Amino acid sequence: MAKSPVKTIASTAVRGAPAINIGISEKDRAAIAQGLSRLLADTYTLYLTTHNFHWNVTGPMFNTLHVMFMAQYTELWNAVDPVAERIRSLGHPAPGSYAQFSKLATVPDAPVTPPKAMEMVRILVQGHEAVARTARELFPMADKASDEPTADLLTQRMTVHEQTAWMLRSLLEE
Ligand SMILES: [Fe+2]
To answer: Please, are residues 78 and 84 in contact by the beta-carbon 8 Å criterion?
Structure first.
């Protein structure tokens, strides 16, 4: 049977994806994607530390902290996906390995020996504040490039990290 002419046109006219053309320059997309990669690495590292502390917390505050850390690591786990997918929307690969995350993260890895409960809380306060700083550092660039979706995402992440830092900090105050 002869090929239909419509099929022939369709198979030759569409070759590869068109270049990204969303109104943000290639240079700005690359710089924002790099900043978001740091935010992804920090968020993932803080997620893992919080889950680690959920497993290893001990002492009279066990139940409170075990449950609180679960709510926090669940929130962080859900947060990594929109950050990674924004990087993809800007046309760049999302980092997703421990090797890449350890190079990109400003948040330190969890200590090998589980710390005392209140030391865990102190580490998490510093972690949430560090992620807030990473998000804040990127904000002016996203704003300048009229990248509203990234600016919106950063605003949401800063709100959560600053609120969580306050809640954790309150446990350490008399
Ligand atoms: Fe659990």
So the answer is: no
* Residue 98 CA to ligand 1 centre (angstroms): 22
The alpha carbon of 55 and the centre of ligand 1 are apart by a number of angstroms equal to: 7
How far is the centre of ligand 1, averaged over its atoms, from the C-alpha of 104 (Å)?
Answer: 28
Å from CA of 71 to ligand 1 middle: 10
pLDDT < 50 stretches in the chain: 1-3, 5, 9
Contact in structure between 131 and 101 (CB atoms under 8 Å): no
Tell me the per-residue pLDDT of 67-79, one tens digit each, with 9 for 90 and over: 999 999 999 999 9
Q: What is the pLDDT of residues 89-124, one digit of tens each?
A: 999 999 999 999 999 999 999 999 999 999 999 999
CA of residue 70 to ligand 1 center, whole Å = 7
Domains of the chain: 25-172 (1.20.1260.10)
Q: Over the range 44-79, which residues count as b (16 or more CB within 10 Å of their CB) and which as e?
A: bbbbbbbbbbbebbeeeeeeebbebbeebbeebeeb
